[in-house]
Amino acid sequence: MTSGRLRGDGDRERRHEPEDRYDDEDYEPVSAAEAAREGLRQVVGLTGKDPLGITSIQATDDGWLVGVEVVEDHRIPASTDLLGLYEVELDMAGDLLGYRRTRRYQRGKGDGG
User: Fold this and answer.
1) Does residue 77 have a cis peptide bond before it, meaning omega lies within 30 degrees of 0?
2) DSSP per-residue string spanning 45-77
3) How confident is the model at residue 20 (pLDDT cuts 50, 70, 90)?
4) Is residue 77 a part of any domain in this protein?
5) Residue 56: CB partners within 8 Å, gap ≥ 6?
6) Structure confidence at residue 67 as a pLDDT band (50, 70, 90)
7) Do residues 60 and 9 make contact, with C-beta atoms less than 8 angstroms apart?
8) Is the distance from CB of 103 to CB of 86 less than 8 angstroms?
9) Residue 94 falls inside a structural domain
């Protein structure tokens, strides 16, 4: 498989970079609130975990960085649930660029240990 198709003149057609679509007049960046909702939706869709909420949102040069907390493992009692903190990277249009789990911890022990 090649990264581009051959044109009639023998030059390879350039693959469009993600930023190229932002040159379109119809493009409108998503707001912080929209990015936060989309980040949450993406984590839930990808992991199947129960969301607790958005923990952070930060504008970047390329879009948004969203922190999402989820229940990794429900336990009894609930105070011993295992939680996870995910970081979701979205572009300016709100499309997923990547995600990763940054922390895993027991409920109530997130900051201290």
Assistant:
1) yes
2) HHH-PEEEEEEEEEE-SSEEEEEEEEEEE--SS
3) low
4) yes
5) 65, 66, 67
6) very high
7) no
8) no
9) yes
